[in-house]
């Protein structure tokens, strides 16, 4: 049932082009984004005052990316909360707020409780859910399914990727209806989003380089991921993947925060992964890389093809294809998933069933 792959995680990493395509294609008709399941009129979409995203773990990281994309494209203010925080914090939300709960399993106890809490306050809840008929799917006012198919490996990969795609579709649709994107930009986004599957495929074809690098760093004790903007969201996910399955301590930092404390942890030969796919922030990230390098860090740079200046600064550079900057997380995360996977394999760990973790967290 692993289809010839050594682990479910690798199989699911490889299923990502298909999963992303299956999530996007049914929602694009004649060059337009159409999400029938949303069940929201144009008037309702125009009236949204803010969006509150609630989720746990990797789904929360999708929420962080969603904040950047929704604010950029649809100009709607977005808050993101861990479900375990949201449910106890008495959030201030008016009737025109839209609550979005993101969950692969649809059974995460805190996310389900957050959904009920929001509904008890009279708020509408949209669920972005993978498991059909799960509790969150049943109880949400509307459900947008991610079509990742069954995910077996505890560490999520393809569900995460499809959640990102769902968020992009919502952002494009809301931006169009609220008039915050030009016709030209709309057309471009619809075109670019459909190219994501083949670009992910291309990254997967270069997995040997990551595997080689993972073997070299498998005995690390601390790894830092730094990025700005959407690259920071990517770092959060890359760091969690690594922690979960390789048992290496790692942290993700918004790169500008480094010098406010964390940089004291950087010493000789510590691995720092610098993610730099956001063009307008590229120079800033490069200067952060220079700073950690001057403290002795070994730097893996992750950037887009064409940005070859990175070679002068990083010790090892991984390239991914370019897409619009708001969709870059979908591509930049792939090498980080592979890095976590191959480190875990190199250490001989139980990749699909890491210690202390369950696939769906049904107790709070
Ligand atoms: C990480 C991972 C977890 C889940 C989290 C939420 O690889 O799988 O962090 O993302 O437990 O689970 P769902 O999406 O089922 O609500």
Automatic annotation (TrEMBL):
Reactions catalysed: D-fructose 6-phosphate + L-glutamine = D-glucosamine 6-phosphate + L-glutamate
UniProt KW rRNA processing keyword: no
GO molecular-function terms, A-Z: carbohydrate derivative binding; glutamine-fructose-6-phosphate transaminase (isomerizing) activity
Domain SIS: 41-180, 213-354
Protein's UniProt keywords contain Transferase: yes
Compartmental location: Cytoplasm
EC top class named in words: transferase
Keywords carried by this UniProt record: Aminotransferase, Cytoplasm, Glutamine amidotransferase, Repeat, Transferase
Protein EC: 2.6.1.16
Active site: 359 (for fru-6p isomerization activity)
GO biological process, one term: fructose 6-phosphate metabolic process
GO terms for cellular component: cytosol
Assembly, per entry: Homodimer.
Function: Catalyzes the first step in hexosamine metabolism, converting fructose-6P into glucosamine-6P using glutamine as a nitrogen source.
Protein name (database record): Glutamine--fructose-6-phosphate aminotransferase [isomerizing]
């Amino acid at each position: 049932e692993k289809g010839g792959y050594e682990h479910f995680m690798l199989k699911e990493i490889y299923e990502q082009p298909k999963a992303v395509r299956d999530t996007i294609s049914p929602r694009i008709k004649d060059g337009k984004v159409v999400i029938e399941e949303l069940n929201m009129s144009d008037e309702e979409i125009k009236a949204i005052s803010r969006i509150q995203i609630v989720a746990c773990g990797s789904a929360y990281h999708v929420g962080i990316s969603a904040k950047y994309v929704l604010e950029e494209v649809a100009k709607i203010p977005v808050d993101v909360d861990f479900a375990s925080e949201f449910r106890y914090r008495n959030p201030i939300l008016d009737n025109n707020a839209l609550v979005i709960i993101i969950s692969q399993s649809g059974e995460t106890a805190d996310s389900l409780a957050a959904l009920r809490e929001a509904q008890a306050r009279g708020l509408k809840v949209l669920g972005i859910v993978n498991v059909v008929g799960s509790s969150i799917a049943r109880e949400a006012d509307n459900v947008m399914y991610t079509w990742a198919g069954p995910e077996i490996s505890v560490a999520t990969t393809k569900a995460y990727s499809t959640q990102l795609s769902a968020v992009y579709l919502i952002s494009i649709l809301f931006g169009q209806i609220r008039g915050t994107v030009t016709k030209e930009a709309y057309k471009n986004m619809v075109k670019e989003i459909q190219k994501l599957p083949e670009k992910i495929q291309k990254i997967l074809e270069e997995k040997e380089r990551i595997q080689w690098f993972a073997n070299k760093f498998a005995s690390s004790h601390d790894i830092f991921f730094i990025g700005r903007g959407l690259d920071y969201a990517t770092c959060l996910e890359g760091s969690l993947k690594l922690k979960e399955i390789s048992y290496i301590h790692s942290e993700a930092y918004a790169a500008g925060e480094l010098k406010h404390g964390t940089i004291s942890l950087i010493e000789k030969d510590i691995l720092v992964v610098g993610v730099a796919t956001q063009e307008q922030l590229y120079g800033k990230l490069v200067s952060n890389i220079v700073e950690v390098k001057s403290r002795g860090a070994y730097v893996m740079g992750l950037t887009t093809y064409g940005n070859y200046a990175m070679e002068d600064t990083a010790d090892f550079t991984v390239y991914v294809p370019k897409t619009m900057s708001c969709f870059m997380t979908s591509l930049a995360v792939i090498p980080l998933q592979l890095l976590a996977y191959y480190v875990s394999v190199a250490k001989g760990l139980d990749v699909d069933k890491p210690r202390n973790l369950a696939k769906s967290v049904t107790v709070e």
